[in-house]
Amino acid sequence: MLMARDGNCDDMQKLHKKWLKHQAFMAELAQNKEWLDKIEREGQHLIQEKPELSPLVRQKLEEIRQCWLDLESTTQARAQQLFQANKADLLAQSYRSLDQRLGQMEGQLAYVDCGHDLATVNRQLKKLQNMEYQMEEWYQEVGELQAQASAVPQQTRAKETVAEQQAAVEARMVRLIEPLKERRRLLLASKEVHQVGRDLEDEMLWVQERLPLAMSQEHGSSLQSVQQLMKKNQTLQKELQGHLSRVEEVLERAAIFASVRSPEANAVHVGHEQLSQLWALLWAETERRQLVLDAMYQAQQYYFDTAEVEAWLSEQELHMMNEEKGKDEPSTLQLLKKHLVLEQTIEDYAETIGLLSQQCRQLLEMGHPDWLANKHTIRLEQQYWLYQLNREVDELEQWIAQREVVASSPELGQDFEHVSLLQEKFTEFASETGSVGQERVTAVNQMVDELIDYGHAEAAVIAEWKDAVNESWAELLELIETRAQMLAASHQLHKFFADCREVLSQIEDKHRRLPEVRICQSSTANTSTLQRLLHGFEQDIQLLVTQVRQLQESAAQLRTVYAGEKAEAIACREHQVMQCWKELLTSCEECRLQITTETDKLRFLGLARDQIMWMDSILCQINTGEKPRDVSSVEVLMNYHQSLRNEVDARSQSVMECIDMGKMLLAARNPAKLDQVVAKQHELSVKWDKHWEALQQLLEVHQFAQEAVVAEAWLTAQEPLVSSRELGGSVDEVEQLIRRHEAFRKAAATWEERFSSLRRLTTVEKLKAEQSKQPATPLLGRKVFLAPQDAPPAPPPSPPRLPLSPKGREMITERAEVAVMAEVVLQEPNRDRLYGGPKTFRTNPEPQVHTQTVQLECQMSPEQLIQARKNELPQEVWREHTERRERRTLERQTSSEQEGHGSHEGRRRERDRHRLERQESSEHDTGKEQSDRREVSHLPNGLPEKSSRPDRPRARDRPKPRRRPRPKETGETTRRSRSAPAQSGPAAPQPPTHSAHHEGFLFRKLDIESLKKSTNRSWVNLYCILHKGGLGFYKDAKNTATAYNNEPMLNLAHCHCDVTNGYKKKKNVFTLKTKDGSEFLFHAKDEVSLVFFKTAMELDGN
């Protein structure tokens, strides 16, 4: 718009440049009209797709249209303004251009060329006619320029200039009128002369074409052939009679032009005489041939009649030779009658024979050609053939001598174009000479052989002529071959020099383009652009490789042929080309190394940025974990944390590649990103180890709490049997009580190892003990319900020795202890059940406090003790515990109804495995416990109780090898602790988040694919993994690295999941509709799995 509104027209020297610039701007504006139409179409399409944006889109389109109209009007006004300002200059320029064209025409008219043949004269006349048309157009152009000049403002200098140029142009046009008329007159006269010469040539050709027919010696060998020849000759006579007027007209015109004395008139005179002679000869030969054919017709007619008479006589002779005499009188009489008729016929035919005899005598008297002496005819024919052969041999030898002059020329050309032209002309000469000469030599040899075979009297002379002609022809062919080889060698030499110049120019052009590639390298940051530029440049150079190799081969061949100065010139030019080529390759290699280094740098920066972003996301996932409430939730967190570790290990190779690349690029002074990547990797590894250790500690604490609950439940169940006062009223009852008591003792012996493991210190307790520098007390043996006056002062907190930051370690330890102690207090079994009542005792660092506590608890009933514990605990903890217990009871009932025998067997095997591990760890530490045991406690039934040392590590505290999380099906229960009962239900599932992780087997059927019915709608049992907003399908749980049929992960964003009530063939079926129109049917094994997958998919979809 600014260019269209530029109104500075004061500088007259720049008016033309401004006009050209404005013309280019108008062309660009016309090209951008398509862009405006495209925007209009896209706006209308957007209005149709999104009607809610219609007002805004229409407003924008109207603004664009108005702006475009303003731009066009402004551009037109600007063009008119520049045209008015530049009108005088344009007029002067138009007059100058017209004056130049008139000068060119004047120069063309000054060169007088009347043409050497009719075609050239016709071209000259056509060219002259075009000049006249141009003059008429220039007359009109001068009139238009005069009209425009009258509208020029009265500016002194411009007006005078235009007037001067106008006068000069008009004067020059007037001067050109006479030369044009004179040129037309000369060309018309020359055309008449050449036309007469052409007509004479055409007529002579016409006569020569028909002269062989008139001079033909074929007279026919039968009556029919003679008749045909007579018809042809009569036709020829009629054609000559019809063409007579044309020949007389041409001869008359030729006689008129021949009367003028000029070189052209002499040629016309010669043509006139030749045509007259040929026409007279043709006419005479036609008449002579007619006479000969008439005589031959009479002879052939006589021969034909004679042949008929002979045939009739032969037939009658056969009748006369019949010796049949008849068998009886009637037959004899019949034969006699036939013989009389035959005699009468013979007598009648005698007249015909007499006529033939008379005709024969007449032919002999007329002197018929067949009756003349053949010997004289043969002698004359041989002499004629000898003269004809002599003429042919002389003409052929003369033609061969002319060709030898051309073939022996020493001219080899001055440069490549000259030698190419010479070689092209010589190729045409050699082709023409070979074809025409071979035909002529073959014709002469054939004529010689025929004469010799006929027995010509001059056969020896004819043979000498044949040898001389063949020898001359062989020498000519040898000269042509030698000349062709010399021109080929010269062409190869000059082509080598021309190719060298061309290759050098291309190499210099590539040298000039190489800085452009380097400039693009410094101005762009896109590696693909740099690689594309370099690849294109290298492809261009690759095209030169073949040319350079061909130059080397050509130079090697030429050095073997030439010597001296030419050999030195060849070697010098080859060295020059190879030197420039090596310099170009070196420069290209340097540029490629620079671009490769820059590409590696940019790729490293991008890879480092991706790795850092990925590490940040992993760190965020590590730091944003929820607080676990039980063992199953801790195990879920540990599995998820282990999956993060697997992901980290999977990406470790790419991180190491990034680090190696950064080390390679350290020379480029770019270590910042490398340090950042290494630091972030170290931070990720340390953070994962710390979080993993914290999760292991949380798992150990929650396992302890769960085992304590199980132990309390067992003690509660066995309490009525121990506290019972029933002794039995009879022998059977006493024996039954004894058997029941024996069973209780066996069960107590089984549970002894569990209580021993509960007395061992956890990792958190050990850390606390190290912080307080005091002997650690197991959670189960610690006194919790102390009187306010008996409570020991709390030790000052000291930073734990966890591999975390001090602040993080305190927060994790405090949260874990608060949660665990709340559950331990609620789930702690009675002390008298563990230590054998008031009679048994344990060594405690605070014996008095312990004794008072035991006495206080012994005086209280179980109901009072539970109520006291409720009162001492915070209400929130108690409420949470109550809700958790009710939820677990409900889950146990549900799972016991739904789970089959297989799930119970799996849980029992898992529980037995964990129990064996704990027993092995307990047996391993039994010796140390017995040596340090100060006192043996007994249960109420008299069984010894094992006490554990505070410093002895438990089996769960030992380092365990990392195990890969086992994939679980939807209906499979979560992994229980080592002491969990078999009838315990599955843990409550965690509420799914945006990165929920769930997996299991589902039957899948693709019903609709991209809004069309799927071709394969069969049910397939697949292992499904729901993770981070995506749903993956696998063949089974062992092959989760490879997707089923290499299918991509199904994105659940904007997906709709619903239970299909209309599908009646199967139960527990739900549908999943994706955003691209596809629809899947999933069949779960039970309702719980159905609800769980449906809820997780809906959350991930939202």
UniProtKB/TrEMBL annotation:
It is found in: Cytoplasm, Cytoskeleton. InterPro entries: PH-like_dom_sf, PH_9, PH_dom-spectrin-type, PH_domain, Spectrin/alpha-actinin, Spectrin_repeat. Residues 787-807, 831-850, 869-997 are annotated as: Disordered. Residues 995-1102 form the PH domain. Residues 121-148, 226-253 form a coiled coil. One of its GO terms (molecular function) is phospholipid binding. Residues 841-850 have a biased composition (Polar residues). It comes from the Eukaryota. One of its GO terms (cellular component) is membrane. GO terms for biological process: actin filament capping. Residues 790-803 have a biased composition (Pro residues). Keywords: Actin capping, Actin-binding, Coiled coil, Cytoplasm, Cytoskeleton, Repeat. Residues 869-891, 898-937, 946-958 have a biased composition (Basic and acidic residues). PANTHER family: SPECTRIN/FILAMIN RELATED CYTOSKELETAL PROTEIN (PTHR11915). Belongs to the spectrin family. This is Spectrin beta, non-erythrocytic 4.
